[in-house]
Structures are given as C-alpha cells and as structure tokens.
Design a protein that fits this description.
heterodimer; A: alpha+beta; four-stranded mixed β-sheet; 13 strands; B: mainly beta; Methylamine Dehydrogenase, Chain H; five-stranded antiparallel β-sheet
Chain lengths: ~290, ~525
Amino acid sequence: MDNIPDPPFSLEGPAFAQRVREAEEVTQTLQNNQWNFAASPKIFAIEAGCDVIAKEMVFIHNGHMQTRIGRLVMAGVGSFFNLMGPESARSQFKMVSSHILDEINRQIGSKGLYDFQEFQKYTPFQEVDFLSPSIFYQLRDLVFYGALYGGGLFPSGFENFSRSIAAGKIIHNVVFVPPMPSSDPGRPVSMMATPLSVQVPTPVVEWMEKPIYGGIVKETLHIINLLTLEPTRISHPFLPFVGEGRIVYGHQRYYLRRFVGISPKEGLRGPGVPSERASQKDESSQGGATT
Amino acid sequence: MNSLAYTGEVEPFVFDMHIRGEIPSLLGGSLIVPTNRRNKDRRVFSRWHDSQTDLMRFDLYPGRPGKIRVHVLAVDPSGADLEDGFRRGEFETRAYGQLSAYGYATQPNHGINIAGNTVWTTNLLFGAPLEVDLPTWKPRRILRYVELHELAPRVSGTSHFAWSLDHRYAYFHQSLLQCESPGSAVRAADIRLIEMDVQSRTERVWQLLPPAEDDALETANFHSGFYFEEAGKHYVGLLRTGALLESLAPHSAPIDHTVMPMPPSTIWVVELDREKSILQAELLPGIRELDGLALSHLDVDSSSGDGFILYANFKEADVAEETHGVNIYGEEPEEVAEHYSGMIVEALNYGMVIRYERRGGQISLRTFKRPYVPGMTSLGHSWLPINIMLDPAKRRLFCTFSGFRPRLLPRHIAEAYSNRLVDPTTIRYVPPLLMRFDASTLEPEYDQKRGHLSYSEPVAMTIAGDGKTDYVCTFSPELGLRIYLADDLNRMICQAESPDLLHWQDSHFRPEPAHMQFVHR
C-alpha cells in the first residue's frame, strides 16, 4: 500500500496548523474568484473516488416526523472517503443498528440487497464505521473542509450543494476508512457501513435526491421501504413499486410500501471521458460520495 | 400509444404542499404548470410529445409560511369529455386509439397562454390548444381551425402565442400535417394564422403563405410568436423552428433510423390586414444567417409601438427526434440507466440566445453563446436554452438552460449533424442553469457573490413582481417549487414540496416540465 497516501487526519501540531493556513488561503482565493475552481485547481477532486453502490432504506413517517434509516454499500479507490448529503437543518443524526431493516426483510421473506443479482459482484465487503461527522452551513465551510482534508470537489457537485445551502439546508458529512484500501481504479473495494438514522420533523414524505456520480459506479441499487401509520398511496418517483402489506415493529403496526430498482446517478459522463478538472492535475485530493 | 395512458379519471386531484420559508404578498395568485407522465419501466417506448398531460394549478396564498394548494387536471386527449367544446368528426372518432398517425385531438403538456380567467395549454408540436377555465380548472374547448383527414391526420400549432400590446388579441398558427411518403418527410399544409379576441371571444382566420425564399413546407412549424407595431402597421412574427419529421406516427419499434437534418431556423413576419383573407409572410433578415437550430422560445419588448426588441433562443437540438437506440459512445440503451426510450432529446452542442432590435428601420443584433467550463462556472453556459423571460420592468432577462447529459445523445441523431456535434471524448455532464442577463447588452449580470446565476435549477421558470421587487420561481416535481429574489439568485425565500407531485399512481413518474406561468388572483 505504499502508493496510498496517508489520511490527512494523521497531521497534528504545527504541520496541521500549516495545513489550516493553506486551506484558508485556498478558500479565500476561491471566494474572491466567485468560486471558480480555476483560481485554485488544488480543490478539484482526483478522478477516482467513491460511489454508493447500494442503499437499503426505511422511511418511517408518523404524520409529523420522518425517520430515515439507511444501510449503505460503497465502492471506493483510496484510503479514506467522505460521504456528503444535503439535509434539513432540523435533522438529527445517529448511528443505529440494522435491526429494523433485517426485521422488515424477515417479515416479508426477503434477503434484502442480496436479492439483486447485480449485488453479488460487489461482495465481500469491508465493514466500515462513519467517523468524524461534520456539518457545513455555508459554501466556504464546504470548500475549507475540502481544502483542509483533501476531500476534493467537482464543480457540478459543488453547484448542487450550493443550491441546497441556498434552500436553507445543511451539508452533512461523515468520513469512512476501509481497513484494506485499494489504489487500483480497476479494483475498488466494497464497504458496508453501520446504518445511519436521520430524523426530521415534516408532515410529508421527503424522498432523497439522486446521488452525484463520483467516478466509480454509475448506478445505485435501491431497496426503499415506506412505513406509515395510515394507508397511503404515495409512490416513489423513479423506483418500481413491488408490493405492500403490514408489518409489526417495536409493538407498532405499520403499513409497508416497498420500492426496488436501479437508478442512475446524476452527472454521468461517457466511458473514458475524464472527470471535471483544471488544466493542472492535482493528485493530493481524494474523492467522495454523496448520499 | 401513450396518449391512451388517459384513464378517464375525472375526479380532481387536490393536495397541499409543505412549505419552508414564506410566500410574499406579491405572489398571491396561481402558478400554472403543464406536466406529463412517463412510465417507470424504461423499456416502454413513449414519444415525449405524446405523453399524457397532467395540468397543475398551484394556488399560492401569501404568508409565513402561507399555503399552496395544488389542483391536478388529467386531460382527455380525445376531447370526448368536452361535449360542445369539441365536435369530433367521423374521421377523428374512428382514428382515436386506432390510427397512430392521428394520435389525439389535444395533448397540451408543454406551453401556457393566459388571459383573464382562461388558460390555453399547448403541445410543443402536435395537437390543438386546449382552453381551460382557470377558476374551476376544467377544460372548456379545443381550438381547431383545420379539417383532418386520412392523408393529413395531425395538427401542428404555435405553442407560445403572440399577444397584442393591450393583451386583447392572441395570435397563433395552425396547420395540417400530411403523412410522409417514400422519399419525402411530413409536410405542413393549409397553414392558418388565427387572431383570437379574448374579450369578445371571436376569431379571425387567415391563410398564410410562406416567404418565397423559405417555402419548404416540411419544416414550416413555429414554436412561438410575437406581435409588434411599426409605422402604424401591425405585425406578427413566427419563429420557424424547423422540426423535420420523418414520420407522423411514433415509432412502432425504437430502432436506429436515418435522420433528416433540420435546416437553420428563420423568423417569418406577417403584416396583419383584416381586409384580406390571405397573408404573405416575409423573412426577418439576419436570422437564417445565424445558422442556429431549433429557434424556439422568446420574449419581446414591443411596448414602444414602433418596432421591437426580440429575445429568443436556439436550442441546437433536433427537436423532431427523441431519445432511443445506441448512444454516441456505442452503449446500448440497456447499459444506460438514465435512458428512457422516447424521452426529450439532448442538444448537439451549446445553443445561443439572441437580442434582435428593430427600430426606425435600423437593426441591431447581439448573441450569447457559451460552452460550460468547469473551472469557470461563474461565466454560465448556453447548453439547451429553454425559458427566456424579461422582468416586468424589461431591464433584465432571465434564461434557463437544461444542460447536457452526454450518454443520452443517440448515435443516429449525432451522425446527421457531424459538422455541429460537440466532441464526445471531452464533453461531460453540463448542469442545468438559471442565469440573469442585462436586457440591453445581453451580457450576464456578473456579480462577485454569484447572485446572477443558479446551477442545478429546474428549467421551468417564471418571474412575478411589480417591477420594483421581483421574484423568480422555478419548479420540478423532484425539487419542488423554489422562489428566489430576482436581484439575488442565492436568496431563496421559499421552497415547497410534496410527494404527490412526483408520481402518478405506482406505474408512472412525472418528469421535469419545461414551462410555468404566474397569474395574479
């Protein structure tokens, strides 16, 4: 693994202070240049990065609160990754067990993501935890973090987050580190993370936006379960509806609607076409995934 | 035929949106958005023009957060539900559901034209306008001025009407479309120009003759019109988009086929003369020479009563085609997850916005054309321009651009335009964009904090305000309704959403619509 750079979290003391000063310079330069990445090409992510391969999720909606619990499987090339996504400013985040997802599968007789034939090629997985959660409230927070930790950004992804911030959302970020990383773009490692729960008060079901292409996997395998206290006809915008029924979880009966399918990521490009970059290729950055 | 996705469901569908932020008092009124349905099954071929229409009316009640109630009207494409509002002849009654070249009487999933309490919605190419009563949100009649028959079984018309300066008269064209024959494409026939008096509800119909130097009836279709006066005379300008259809009917199987390339667009100008029954169109000079494809949308300032300033956009896309088949990278549709057979076509290259001013016999022309440069995103781009709209004071121009999804450009379309095609090996995804221009210079209103543009924005856009305080509204089912301060596109003041926008039952989703319009209560 000699060719895999150390995670920047290894810095401390004066070296870290120096990195902070450099990151602030990059941020200031970009801000003074209308966030045009050409002004500071170091901020571009390198081509290979990380993508979400599959999502198995449950949306529990009780009429005024939505709790989203997701088991994510990612593929990545590199030693550490960021997972970023726009969320409501009222969201509460916590790591949870996969019990509810397993229980739904048990009650309806499903093997979950393993029901996808396409999923088999990504096994086996390295188990990862989401670490060092952070929240970005404004564009300069996002850029500063990218410059400081080498998270890297693509302009189209940056613009997407920019709209979320304008809408009053926050950008939630977590880090994950594979125990056995890969530096070979042809052989990304697969990682399965401990489920993350996001709870937000809202009277309507709020589906997630499509993830942005990070350079590894063009599509996302989805299993989405919607649990409600009352019957509903809400459907998913792009995933096929595969069935409905009732389940019991935690002494509560829920109506279940289940959607399963494959969806494209945003920002896809043709085969062999390089990622967005400045004229000078910067090798110090690592890519990230969006939720 | 996708038009038969209409199920006869007449029960109105009404729901409220969840709002974050506030609805300003100036936005007390309704937003009208024609949407359509698309099957979630990507293998189902469905031509985008023909997709079943769901007309949405968003009633906005100002406040913090205020209230938004959405009314959805599923349109009957046969017109059979209109009773006296549309008399189907023997041919149409027989052809509906049976003859794919006929299709439908109306499928108004694209354009919006409003006067008072009446809305006329239109397809982008086919079928006749549907008149809808705004307060009740019920269809009233279909506007039909030509007689269909076996050899000319479809209608084409102007999607975005021209309006007289006092907004009393609407102008639009309507023509028959004759079936293709071996060696020749679909042709327009019996081209009419209609003047509709929205006060007296009377209409005048002229026969329209093409300009001698632009008389190819295969490409005589007009997406938008504008009205102006000059030296005491009244004129209508028609943007000759130039869609060239190989076939009237949607494909029975989505196989690669030879594409006949569209010619550069032009603008026809017609002097209105109520004493005549036939009007001769002339070419507006300087437009054909721009060599742009698919001149489509416009806004106009003709308030001076002497000439006009026209703002219009060229899509640089073959709008007669639809997405299907192998893409420019040689990938089969099954390998491209974002591919929906029959969906909206991608551009061949970046498009163009123009400002054409004619006053006192003098003409001035400005253009804006720009690729997307990832390192310089503050400059904007002009990939697939859609909406173009002046603010109420006519000082600023707002445009939306749909961007580019390279894997969705079919190889068989690209091959017909090798001299115009972007380099597939270097082009990447280009994000959608909303941008504000100075209307007098057609330069983006650059601002250090990038308040002049917004990427990743839905293309359906409208502006409402009083000329002092203006708002920009954008909408897509997926991203919801967004309201920005027009002065600063970083300042979103409202965002509203509902899962009921996103889907129709369990089988269909609602793709992103092209247009929306605001009407005060």
